[in-house]
Specification:
heterodimer; A: alpha/beta; 4-stranded mixed β-sheet; 66% helix; B: alpha/beta; 15 helices
Chain lengths: 376, 369
């Protein structure tokens, strides 16, 4: 026990003797959490578009007014020349061209389909998708308004017998579809994992590079003591970061804490062991800090991009969905969201927690085994 | 000049001797591109949903069958009353519950109108939206079948939507430029900052500094091998993108390579700057990795559109080099933009590079203590 105590003191001294480390470990995650949580949003802001209104009718003007008043669209320029409009699109001045053909009003008033064209700049695909769905919903609204007008003017029997299914959407847990509540727990998990993985991944290999591992090897320290001495300091730092982040989420972002904080902390402590054992394993497998960090970075990027943080896991093909079972970050992100936002308890998350525990013990065992007290 | 050449040769040897790092450096971008290129899609697959069928008649059975047959959905549970919904959502697998009202078919036939409630787990707002849109689509198709032969509602505006430059909205096309930006930023900034701080840590920098080499010689010598490596990376990624994912390449390849080199230089300058303000590999690494990874992914427009961010963040995102590079690369690859359309972004990158170089030369001390 005393030995571990000394090792702990050594590690803490080493980390914090470096003046730059404390701000990096505490301030940087907080700042990133504060800033980046706002960046992740699929909300549409004002879209400028070029208008080609060849119809110049009451209906076309009504339609344009409807787009303008939605607050999402803004007519930047008006022209009758398609080439000119395309040039604006190409130069990136506008993101959309709306073309209303001649005879638009007549088609609509006589109960026909009135075609029109929307040309959307899809270089930024996610924006383009948003523009499309927002404009489609405006057009649908407009259509039903027009339909009511038309039905009033026509004999009511014309459309008799048409079946209609009403779809009534209801969004639970997050009725305003607020992105921040969703992102904050996820980003917090990623920040904590990065710090855990990078710090521990660098650790043993650093001693190797500096040659100080020899000195540790000749002492009577046991393997497990050595490993605990390496794990515990970063575990404590990780937990501290998580606590600060959770406080920020609760009081800064007003994230609902429906589940129990205790559950989160227990799982976080298991999760940190998983991540850090992984770091230690990388550390024992590599020869320089540069190598170690590149490997760690590689896994981190995969964990983040395939962990359901930004794009839903359900949007991946099934083989890739299966890969998620091996992704500890994905588990913890999911658990955090379930517990905090939906109030899930032990019963619901038991299987994921046991997966994390299994991963943790396996990685820990392997990395303890990999570490040899002899140098090659 | 001779001593400089010697130094550069030494740097190259040092890096190319380390076979593991080289493998990692070249292998990882390839694995990442393959993985993400195939894995990240815009459509949804196998979303688990639950059914609450209060009617259990022919119409609901047909509709449920159609939902089940779609590759987007997988029916996970049939429940009997509302009280069970909460429990299902809490388990976290089921993302949507479809509630068919009692007497669905009868109402549809007699009153021409019946209700389905789509209750989604909106903790993920984006997924909730997609799931609703997909379900709506299937229900509307069914509705059209039921109405077949009847005078359809032939009215209304029907927009023809044309997606310029990326007609199918293929995610790979969007992903490749983003991935290039992220990989180059991390490889260049991380590797240079580590390699210079390593010399500091090992005490080798002292030896270099008392040699007749000028500080800028040392920096150029350090940076040059990584420039070569990064260019190698760009070429591999572009070849993969072209031959495996068939990503279109509309614009000039020469311009693309020039811009890539410019961006690599920005990233290298950033790496040099980081190493000039830090003293050991650990600090350099935490700054370069933990500090750059998420901002590069999130603020560059790689996944979330910059235009969707709050205004202060949009302004802040201007200091992220990847944001500018992404505009340039997407422009060249998808739109076929020439320099006349991307000169502004290019100038910004040039400016950033010069600023970073000046700052690091100022900071780079000839004496270490």
């Amino acid at each position: 026990m005393r030995t571990i105590g000394f090792l702990l003191r050594k590690e803490f001294l080493q980390v914090f003797r470096n003046r730059a480390m404390l701000p990096i470990l505490i301030v940087m995650p907080v700042v990133q959490l504060l800033i980046l949580s706002f960046a992740a949003s699929y909300e549409l802001k004002e879209v400028n578009f070029t208008l080609l209104d060849r119809d110049q009718s009451t209906v076309s003007r009504q339609l344009i007014a409807k787009f303008q008043s939605s607050g999402y669209f803004n007519v930047l320029e008006e022209t009758f020349d398609q080439a000119e409009a395309l040039e604006s699109l190409n130069a990136g001045r506008v993101n959309m061209i709306m073309e209303i053909p001649y005879g638009f009003e007549k088609q609509l008033k006589t109960g026909h389909i009135a075609p029109m064209q929307l040309i959307i700049d899809a270089v930024d695909g996610s924006s383009a998708g948003l523009i499309q769905s927002y404009s489609t919903s405006i057009l649908n609204d407009f259509n039903s308004e027009q339909l009511v007008k038309l039905q009033l003017s026509q004999a009511p029997t014309t459309h008799a017998g048409i079946k209609h299914i009403n779809l009534i959407p209801q969004n639970w847990y997050n009725p305003d579809l607020n992105y921040i509540t969703f992102m904050v727990p996820g980003i917090l998990v990623v920040l904590v994992s990065m710090i855990g993985l990078f710090l521990s991944g660098m650790n043993i290999v650093r001693e190797q590079e500096m040659g100080t591992i020899e000195q540790l090897n000749v002492t009577p320290i046991r393997k497990y003591q050595f490993m605990i001495g390496k794990l515990l300091p970063f575990w404590i730092i990780g937990m501290a970061d998580l606590l600060i982040g959770l406080a920020l989420a609760r009081y800064g972002f007003h994230i609902p804490f429906l589940g129990s904080l205790f559950t989160i902390l227990v799982i976080a402590s298991i999760f940190l062991v998983v991540i850090q054992s992984m770091g230690l394993l990388i550390s024992t497998l590599t020869q320089t800090q540069q190598q170690a960090m590149f490997v760690a970075w590689f896994f981190m990027v995969i964990f983040i991009l395939m962990g359901g943080l930004f794009t839903p896991i359900e949007s991946m093909p099934s083989w890739a969905q299966n890969l998620v079972y091996a992704n500890p970050v994905a588990y913890f992100i999911k658990i955090m969201r379930m517990v905090l936002l939906k109030g899930a308890g032990w019963k619901e998350i038991a299987s994921m927690v046991s997966m994390l525990t299994a991963m943790g013990s396996l990685l820990l065992l392997i990395s303890i085994n990999r570490y040899k007290k002899t140098t090659v | 000049m001779n001593s400089f050449r010697g130094f550069v040769v030494k740097e190259f040897k040092q890096i190319f001797r380390d076979k593991r790092t080289l493998m990692v450096l070249f292998g990882m971008p390839i694995i990442m591109l393959m993985l993400f290129g195939f894995a990240i899609r815009n459509e949804i697959t196998n979303v688990k949903i639950g059914i609450l069928d209060l009617s259990k008649d022919q119409a609901t059975r047909t509709l449920i069958q159609k939902i089940d047959a779609s590759s987007s959905f997988q029916i996970e549970a049939y429940i009997d009353h509302y009280g069970e919904i909460e429990g299902l959502f809490k388990q976290g697998e089921v993302k949507e519950i479809m509630v068919f009202e009692a007497g669905f078919e009868e109402k549809l036939m007699r009153q021409n109108s019946a209700d389905i409630q789509l209750i989604t787990d909106a903790t993920d707002p984006n997924l909730a939206n997609m799931v609703q849109a997909y379900t709506t689509n299937i229900v509307r198709t069914y509705e059209r079948e039921v109405n077949r032969g009847k005078p359809a509602l032939k009215i209304g505006i029907q927009p023809a939507v044309k997606m310029m430059y990326n007609p199918e909205l293929k995610s790979v096309n969007l992903f490749v430029p983003g991935l290039i930006a992220v990989i180059l930023m991390l490889v260049s900034a991380l590797m240079t900052s580590l390699s210079i701080t390593r010399e500091k840590e090992m005490g080798n920098l002292e030896i270099l500094l008392i040699s007749p080499l000028k500080p800028y010689h040392i920096i150029i010598g350090k940076v040059l091998p990584y420039l070569v490596l990064s260019i190698g990376n760009v070429i591999t990624i572009v070849l993969l993108a072209k031959f495996i994912f068939h990503v279109p390449f509309e614009g000039s390849r020469l311009l693309f390579f020039m811009e890539s080199i410019l961006y690599i230089l920005t990233a290298l300058a950033l790496g040099v700057f980081i190493s000039s303000v830090t003293n050991n590999q650990q600090t350099a690494l935490m700054v370069a990795l933990a500090g750059l990874l998420l901002p590069t992914v999130l603020l560059s427009g790689f996944i979330f559109p910059v235009a969707s961010m709050p205004v202060p963040l949009q302004i802040f995102s201007n200091i992220i080099p990847a944001k500018w590079f992404l505009v340039i690369v997407r422009g060249i690859m998808l739109k076929g933009s020439g320099i006349s359309l991307v000169w502004k972004e290019t100038l910004v990158l040039v400016g950033m590079t010069l600023l970073l170089i000046t700052l690091s030369l100022k900071k780079f001390k000839v004496r270490l203590q």
